[in-house]
Amino acid sequence: MGAMIPYVTDTPDIAIPASLLPADGRFGSGPSKVRPASVEALGAAATTYLGTSHRQKTVKSVVGSLRAGLTELFSLPEGYEVLLGNGGTTCFWDAATFGLIERRSQHLSFGEFSSKFAKAAKDAPHLDDPSVITAEPGTHPTAVADPDVDLYALTHNETSTGVMMEITRPDGAVPPAEGGGLVAVDATSGAGGLRVDPAAFDAYYFAPQKCFGSDGGLWVSLLSPAAVERIEQIHASGRWTPAFLDLHIALENSRLDQTYNTPALATIFLFDDQVRWFNENGGLEFSAGRCDRSAEILYAWADASPFATPFVAKEEERSRVVGTIDFADEVNAATVAAVLRRNGIVDTEPYRKLGRNQLRIAMFPAVDPDDVAALCACINHVVGALAS
C-alpha cells in the first residue's frame, strides 16, 4: 500500500447518500474548521471590535484574555510567559535563529515542516551549522544530549506525515538552569490537541489555524523563564536583529497585551473564543480527548479495512490530530478525495510533497468525532461505487 499518488483527470459522478454525510465536511489540516459558534460570536462583536485600534483597550482586552486563557489551558508554571507576533510559525523559525539560538542548535527532521527550521538555522550566517538528526517520513528520531548544543528543536506533530512524538527533554541533557540547552517545540498542529508537560519545554510555539480553529498569520510561543532569559541575554549582547523578528520586542509588546505591528483582529478573536471553549469544558483534557476519540475511530476503521491502512506503523507515533491513511494500489486515493470534495467533504488530500496514495484527515478539536465516523462510511461508499 501507499504507492506514489496518481492523478485525477475526470471526477466520477458518484453521489453519496445524504444519510451517510457528516454534518460538517471540513477535514483540512490548515486552515482548519472554524466553529460556526465562533463566527457568530465575531459577528455579534463586529461593530464594536473589528476596525478598532489594536493599541486600545477593546482589542488589548481580547489579547489579554487570550494570553491568560493559554496560561490556564497549558497549566503554565509561575514565570512562564505567553508571547505573540505576526507572521506565523515560519516567521518564528527565523525569529528563533536571531533570538533563541545562541550559537548551535540540534534539530529532529522527519518531514517537510520539521526540516524547515533546520534549514533556517543552517542558512543563518551568524550561527554554527546545526546538528540534524533525521528519520524517514512515517516515524521520528530521538534527540541526543550534546554539550555543544544550546537549543534542541523538536516537533510535537509533523503535519505532513501524521507522526507525533512525546515531548521530553533529551536524556542526560544538562538543564537550562545549569547552562544546558533550551528545548524549543514546534507545536503548530499539535498544540491544543495533544497533551504536553510545560516542564518538558522552554519554548512551545504554534499558530492558530489548526487546533485553535482560527486563521493564520500569527504565532504564539509559551516561554519558560530560561527562554526569557536567553532572549534578554542575546538582546543585551547587541546581536543585530530585524525589528519584525526581534523576540525582545515581541516580549515587551506581549507584556502590554499587544503585538509589534497591527495583527488581524478577527484571527485573535476567533483564537480567544476557541481557547475559552476549551477551558470552559475541561481544558486540555477536553480538547485532547476529542482528538483521541476521532483518532480511535479513524485508525480502527483503517486497521479493519481491506483497502486502507495507517501510514504510520507504530501506534504510539500515530498522530491524534492529523491522520494519514495509505490506500491499496488498486484504489486511487486522489479519485476518492475528488469524489468526496464533489459531495461537500473537503481537504482530505495528502500533503503534496509526500506524494503517497493516501488521504490526510484532520482531527482537530473542532472536528466532531461523529463526523470522522461518517467520513469513514463515506469513503467505504465511494470505494465500493468505484469498484462496481
Helix content: 25-40%
Give the overall shape. Answer: globular
Question: What's the CATH H-level homologous superfamily of the largest domain?
Answer: Type I PLP-dependent aspartate aminotransferase-like (Major domain)
Number of helices: 10
- Share in β-strands: 5-15%
Q: What Rg do the Cα atoms give?
A: 21 Å
Distance between the termini: 21 Å
CATH-scheme architecture of the largest domain: 3-Layer(aba) Sandwich
Mean pLDDT: 96
The assigned structural class equals: alpha/beta
Strand order of the largest sheet: 1-9-8-7-4-2-3
Describe the structure.
The chain has helices spanning 36-49, 57-73, 88-99, 112-123, 225-237, 247-254, 265-280, 284-304, 333-342, 369-387; strands at residues 81-86, 105-109, 131-134, 151-155, 157-158, 163-164, 182-186, 203-206, 218-223, 308-310, 322-327, 358-362. It is an alpha/beta fold and 388 residues long. It has two domains: 37-280, Aspartate Aminotransferase, domain 2 (3-Layer(aba) Sandwich), CATH 3.40.640.10; 284-387, Aspartate Aminotransferase, domain 1 (Alpha-Beta Complex), CATH 3.90.1150. The strands form three sheets. It has a seven-stranded mixed β-sheet with strand order 1-9-8-7-4-2-3, sandwiched between helices. The chain has a three-stranded antiparallel β-sheet with strand order 10-11-12. The protein has a two-stranded antiparallel ribbon with strand order 5-6. A hairpin with a 4-residue loop joins β5 (157-158) and β6. The longest helix has 21 residues, at 284-304. 50% of the residues are buried.
